[in-house]
Amino acid sequence: MAGLWVGTASLVAAGRRGRWPPQQLMLSAALRTLKHVPYYSRQCLMVSRNLGSVGYDPNEKTFDKILIANRGEIACRVIRTCKKMGIKTVAIHSDVDASSVHVKMADEAVCVGPAPTSKSYLNMDAIMEAIKKTRAQAVHPGYGFLSENKEFARCLAAEDVIFIGPDTHAIQAMGDKIESKLLAKKAEVNTIPGFDGVVKDAEEAVRIAREIGYPVMIKASAGGGGKGMRIAWDDEETRDGFRLSSQEAASSFGDDRLLIEKFIDNPRHIEIQVLGDKHGNALWLNERECSIQRRNQKVVEEAPSIFLDVETRRAMGEQAVALARAVKYSSAGTVEFLVDSKKNFYFLEMNTRLQVEHPVTECITGLDLVQEMIRVAKGYPLRHKQADIRINGWAVECRVYAEDPYKSFGLPSIGRLSQYQEPLHLPGVRVDSGIQPGSDISIYYDPMISKLITYGSDRTEALKRMADALDNYVIRGHMLTKSEKNQLLAIASSLFVAFQLRAQHFQENSRMPVIKPDIANWELSIKLHDKVHTVVASNNGSVFSVEVDGSKLNVTSTWNLASPLLTVSVDGTQRTVQCLSREAGGNMSIQFLGTVILLRCLMEVSTVYWRRHTKNREKEESHKSVGNTPMLYKVNILTKLAAELNKFMLEKATEDTSSVLRSPMPGVVVAVSVKPGDAVAEGQEICVIEAMKMQNSMTAGKTGTVKSVHCRAGDTVGEGDLLVELE
Amino acid sequence: MAAALRVAAAGARLSVLASGLRAAVRSLCSQATSVNERIENKRRTALLGGGQRRIDAQHKRGKLTARERISLLLDPGSFVESDMFVEHRCADFGMAADKNKFPGDSVVTGRGRINGRLVYVFSQQIIGWAQWLPLVISALWEAKDFTVFGGSLSGAHAQKICKIMDQAITVGAPVIGLNDSGGARIQEGVESLAGYADIFLRNVMASGVIPQISLIMGPCAGGAVYSPALTDFTFMVKDTSYLFITGPDVVKSVTNEDVTQEELGGAKTHTTMSGVAHRAFENDVDALCNLRDFFNYLPLSSQDPAPVRECHDPSDRLVPELDTIVPLESTKAYNMVDIIHSVVDEREFFEIMPNYAKNIVVGFARMNGRTVGIVGNQPKVASGCLDVNSSVKGARFVRFCDAFNIPLITFVDVPGFLPGTAQEYGGIIRHGAKLLYAFAEATVPKVTVITRKAYGGAYDVMSSKHLCGDTNYAWPTAEIAVMGAKGAVEIIFKGHENVEAAQAEYIEKFANPFPAAVRGFVDDIIQPSSTRARICCDLDVLASKKVQRPWRKHANIPL
Description:
The complex is a heterodimer of chains A (727) and B (559).
Chain A: E1 6-8, H1 13-17, H2 42-48, E2 65-68, H3 72-84, E3 88-94, H4 101-105, E4 108-113, H5 124-134, E5 138-140, H6 150-158, E6 162-163, H7 168-175, H8 177-186, E7 194-195, H9 202-212, E8 216-220, E9 229-232, H10 235-253, E10 258-262, E11 268-276, E12 282-294, E13 297-303, H11 310-326, E14 332-339, E15 345-351, H12 358-365, H13 369-378, E16 394-402, E17 415-421, E18 429-433, E19 440-441, E20 448-456, H14 459-471, E21 474-478, H15 482-503, E22 522-528, E23 531-540, E24 543-548, E25 551-557, E26 565-570, E27 573-582, E28 587-591, E29 598-601, H16 618-621, E30 624-627, E31 632-639, H17 640-646, E32 660-662, E33 667-672, E34 679-680, E35 685-691, E36 694-699, E37 704-709, E38 716-717, E39 722-726
Parallel strand pairs in A: 2-3, 2-5, 3-4, 5-6
Antiparallel strand pairs in A: 1-16, 7-10, 8-9, 8-10, 11-12, 11-14, 12-13, 13-16, 14-15, 16-20, 17-19, 17-21, 18-20, 22-23, 22-31, 23-24, 24-25, 25-26, 26-27, 27-28, 28-31, 29-30, 32-39, 33-35, 33-38, 34-37, 35-36, 37-39
Helix pairs in contact in A: 6-7, 9-10
Chain B: H1 2-22, H2 29-48, H3 52-60, H4 66-73, E1 80-82, E2 107-114, E3 117-124, H5 155-171, E4 175-179, H6 190-206, E5 212-216, E6 219-221, H7 226-230, E7 233-237, E8 242-244, H8 248-255, H9 261-265, H10 267-273, E9 279-281, H11 284-295, H12 336-343, E10 349-352, E11 360-367, E12 370-377, H13 388-403, E13 408-414, H14 421-425, H15 428-441, E14 446-455, H16 456-461, E15 471-474, E16 479-481, H17 485-492, H18 499-510, H19 514-518, E17 524-525, H20 531-542
Parallel strand pairs in B: 3-4, 4-5, 5-7, 6-8, 7-9, 12-13, 13-14, 14-15, 14-16, 15-17
Antiparallel strand pairs in B: 1-2, 2-3, 10-11, 11-12
Helix pairs in contact in B: 1-2, 5-6, 13-15, 17-18
């Protein structure tokens, strides 16, 4: 499976529309391919990132050398700040990551093991070895991997290496959901009503659930990221949920302890960034709205939240700081809250690390959180007072994932990035990424490949910039491996021949016999991705023997040509393909494996979002795919003769009739739903014309901006009258 | 194809050799050899057409040569050429000179097979006559176009075409013409005109006997246009083909209109505005591939039943999406093509005139492998009403299907005939009658499905029970009435106070399939999802349908 697509969750709607509808909105943002992708040098990567942060004091002594125990975008992010502070950096990497961007950016690099994370980025022994070897004075763990591993922190302490993060006890206290909840209660932080202990069995779970009142949520004590979470609305579901969650928790975390709490209906996920030092100071750096989630994973974040008022924000901030103080928190951390529709907020958990979404906070506060983490770790007190922390403008972040859209976005999609260009030429855009053109997306690591952050004076501007940035973000994967490509070609040509043979298969007509052409070998020419492949196919019953670019493949199937899904065996490998369309002229669209470049847009965040713990999953599926149709391969198959003659056919200039909308019939305009300057998506309704007492919806022929509107509701229009022009 | 030609050439060589031997007493061996050489030379020249330079020039214009076109259209190795040695007989204007004579003249003719089924083909050859271009004059074709277009029609050229058409009629196999011609050959004068008329006559004689298809692959102007116009289907190649009676310059001088060739007679004009052409394709290769595809729908002659191809789509397949396809509000549109796609085999539907009179959809599809003709009102365009153009489009299609034993399936959602002065002045009465006439006249199996509205006279027209529909179904959403509820109430209850109640009463009474069903005007009210299964089953039964009409010389359709 070597497909790469990139899913970007974006909040683009409002900025494009020029207005701000409260309901959920989806809008497409297309990726445009640029032919020439400039080579990204290290320097380019460095200067292009504009970290909206305050400068540092060059006289303030800091570490000489820091090891970054991470990979990908966060490693690059940390290295950038280190460079700014004049600190030497050490990257660690697995063998497959040897040529990745973070390795190139760092001053030194140490290979810590083979590709699987357990043998490399989680391999404490090897990392400790690297630290000793390079004499790094401190370690920044990034997020994930060892960032919240108390063992690692302990190991470092034993070697007198500073862990750039909170103290071990804070990690431990906050790492356990039950303990953290007890601590939060003690610090007078609002907590979700629930049972503060381990639930023994299903019957006890039911009893507790009844006490709390339905709906309740059952979750793994050691859990995170939505694993081992269940919502129960009655006793029956509680029993099932208990069983399933404990199984899931046992398999995911090796710890089947469960707890139960009140399920907050329609919650928002809002978190407060806190920053503490070793001198007992702590600040709250405002909130991040993280309500847009998918499978309980954040995809779009923004700061500040449109939902909070000043009082709620302060109350949340003060409680977060209280909690941080209670655990003597001395680094950057995040206190997550659930906020219900009445702005009641409840403590959820505290993350004792730098969060993925930290850039939005940096944008609006002007702080460089990594820099502050390093300073604090060195032992300096915070430079800021709570009163210094303000909200300047608005920032939005979209996470860009490489995922397989045809496995419900569930599995990472891997492959090589053939084209990649970040939209850094636009104002107010920051991209945190650890990839460059030619980078491999590996199956071993997180499918999040970059973060796109835009910043503006207000939310509308930030969103508008996000829309533009997404439009300008070029991400193209090179999808198929050679053998997969050959399989695709073999299947396509077998299908082609099967269709050709079937076309000769007439019921016996005695008046004039059908004399089928006797073709032993079908010489075909298949065009895929502008490359022409020569294929020779022959069949024996339902078995096709296909020679593709020199290699021979046997393709077997029932060849039920009416079935949309076709199970094909290629040299023993089972593949399921769909032949979605087939034209007499040789064009065929085949769905094969899961690869495409796809940009997904999620819904608007302000009022509606994916309910974190909801039963209904439909909303999750409602993101819209735009750009290329997922995973479709367009091939053109011609016989050798036709392909040779096809060379003489002229390239046609594409006629653009899609930008003008004309009335197809005489009638009365009932409604016009666009105005000049509006962005419209292909297929979006533009106006409604009533003719012969029937309402006909006129839709946009392409995605674009409305240039001019030539009709008004109530107008009588004739056939061919110009209604709307698009740009 | 080359192999076949070689075989043919070898065969010819042998027979010549044999006759040479018989005459051995009188002839010298050298004579036979020289004849052989001449045969070889002629064949080579004929195969090369106008020479490599001309072939290249043709390719540069994005067009294929006559022989390349045939090789793509027909099954490999199946082409059998006739009249390769025919030359023109014109002696005037220096035409008798050897350099102005080409074996085969400017057309390649013969027979071959498409997916194993016999077909006669002629392919006009523009390039053989390039060196004549300054001489070739068509009275209707202005001088400046000559440098581009040749392939003019001579007496010999016409004779070759007539020969294969005659044979096609006697054998009972379709004729496909690949047209690419500059018009009449002036040097030949009236002989060339006679040639046209000979072809026209055969077009008419063959009409309704064998399917005739024209594919316009280059210019076709003046008198030449009437041959395609007489055939059953006229297809065009986008950007490289033109059909017009007179070119832009003559138009300018006569009517003072400024118009380009493309605007006047290009593929777009004829497939969207004039309705002269039935469909347009991207380029030569695309057109020929599509033509092969299209050919598979057609029976070889009026003596043959509609072809039945192997089918992988179960005939009793239920189509659940049809149960909800008709919107609940009767004023809301939906796409009839969606219904057609889901009912027919494998969603394959070859639409005829997809861009002309879009308020009616016609085309070929298969049901359980058997070719059927589909006619459907398109609620998406002009509410699916019948007007002048859609009536004519539908009528011609229905008559083709009837002539060639192709069963007709009609999907009805028609609010009536389009009112207005434009339509009345345009002769909607006369043209609407054509569709009515065609459906009434048709004796092929006729299955009708009323999906929603069937109002007024249009209800009668659309293959109703009263016009001998064999099986007429109504979906539960059907409304069969004289007119919509509002209009009806305004007439029936004129001056009545409680209009709304009256309207509700009318809807209750008529906006449903029962009034027609109780009278037996629909045979059954069916669940939409079962439509495919029902139609396939009916067509099996109706395959043996026989209808006798009273003798007449020919019927008189209101043209």
